[in-house]
User: Which sequence fits this backbone?
């Protein structure tokens, strides 16, 4: 007769961590978007001029220069409100995927790449931007999974 020993995974989140970690991730995502939106609005002329230098979007630069910070603020508000946090995380992931796609396409087709992120994030290289965005996408996915886990757990408790 064979004996099967089931081991618990070495790394597990406590129940408290599963509740608090999505909140912390949401706050970090809010900070990122509010920080970059603020930088784009405060120095709007510079942001707009930079967008006009990107050939693949220069025809829409004026619209994009206002639309991007507005979207960042709206997503931040969704993340802030507990009832819309899940939709905010989904929107955050979508926007970050768009930003990453823009960076990758600009890296391929643009001879000169102006960074228009705002603040300290502009100091990153383009490959660092991609990794930075991917890390935030993964964090937001983790938060979504934890929220789903918490919701399933709550339903089972009823």
Assistant:
């Amino acid at each position: 007769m064979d004996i099967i020993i089931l081991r618990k995974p070495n790394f597990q989140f406590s129940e408290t961590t599963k509740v608090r970690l999505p909140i912390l991730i949401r706050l970090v995502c809010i900070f990122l978007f509010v920080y970059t939106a603020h930088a784009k609005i405060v120095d709007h002329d510079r942001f707009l001029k930079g967008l006009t230098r990107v050939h693949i979007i220069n025809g829409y630069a004026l619209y994009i220069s206002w639309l991007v910070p507005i979207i960042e603020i709206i997503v931040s508000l969704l993340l802030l409100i507990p009832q819309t946090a899940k939709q905010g995380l989904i929107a955050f992931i979508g926007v970050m995927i768009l930003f990453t796609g823009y960076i990758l396409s600009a890296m391929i087709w643009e001879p000169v790449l102006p960074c228009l992120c705002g603040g300290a994030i502009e100091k990153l290289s383009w490959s660092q931007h991609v990794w930075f965005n991917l890390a935030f996408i993964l964090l937001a996915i983790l938060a979504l999974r934890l929220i789903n886990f918490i919701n399933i757990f709550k339903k089972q408790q009823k």
User: Anything to note?
Assistant: The helical segments are 15-42, 44-52, 61-80, 85-109, 126-157. The chain has five helices and no strands. The two ends are 40 Å apart (CA to CA).
